[in-house]
Amino acid sequence: MTVQPLEQVQEAPAVVTVENPEASGRFVICCEHASNAFPAPWGELGLTPAQMGAHIAWDPGALGLARALAQLLDAPLVHAGVSRLIYDLNRPPQSRGAMAEQSEVHSIPGNIGLAANERRARTEAVYLPFHAALRALLARRAVAGPLPVLVTVHSFTPVWLGRPRAVEFGIIHDADPRLARAVLAAAPTGLYARLNEPYSAADEVTHTLALHATPMGLPSVMLELRSDLIADAEAQRSVADRLAPSLRAALAAAESGV
Hints:
Layout: H1 6-9, E1 16-19, E2 27-31, H2 49-53, H3 62-73, E3 77-80, E4 102-103, E5 106-107, H4 116-144, E6 149-156, E7 159-160, E8 163-164, E9 169-172, H5 178-185, E10 193-195, H6 207-216, E11 220-226, H7 233-256
Parallel strand pairs: 2-3, 2-6, 6-11, 9-10
Antiparallel strand pairs: 1-3, 4-5, 7-8, 9-11
């Protein structure tokens, strides 16, 4: 695979977008797997159109849900502009999953056998600017007070390796479980919610929380919605309408010690 010079890599379309940075609410919404774009210089990584549209490439519905939550909560939104197969922004640079050679049953040809300088180039072009933007936003809000609340938004497949998933709403935490437990207690009726399902920190899915929220002592939680429940804009808005009051109530409960 030809290595692109770093200056060419940095000419790629925006890898991070910050919407509503001056929003006045406490919540900061983050969507690391918002996009299934495969722009130059990385290209399609040898994938078919069907694979590029599938869950392996992004979290379908997550960005629409994140935007709706950001609007309802008067929150800034930080979201990715390239596929997680180019770089999974919820994985640290040393993780093989950051540029996975295989996802589920799918081989990712363009990620197989990446040299160290190729991995470094993607890290420089995608990972560093994304997390720098999120860190700067959180730091500015923290110094102004009160402490911001980091919420990351994801979706998961209804069926995993042939097995249907009953859980509809997964609530995941890093080292501090308080907000996640409060979100579970305040979860909307009619959504089958579980703590640390279908993933947990043990599955290496809380990197963004561990990188930003845990060191700063920020309340934080990762939200996982089953993708069939947020398949279109109407469904995304409907779920957001139900989740936003739950998040407000959960924050109040977590901070009051209830």
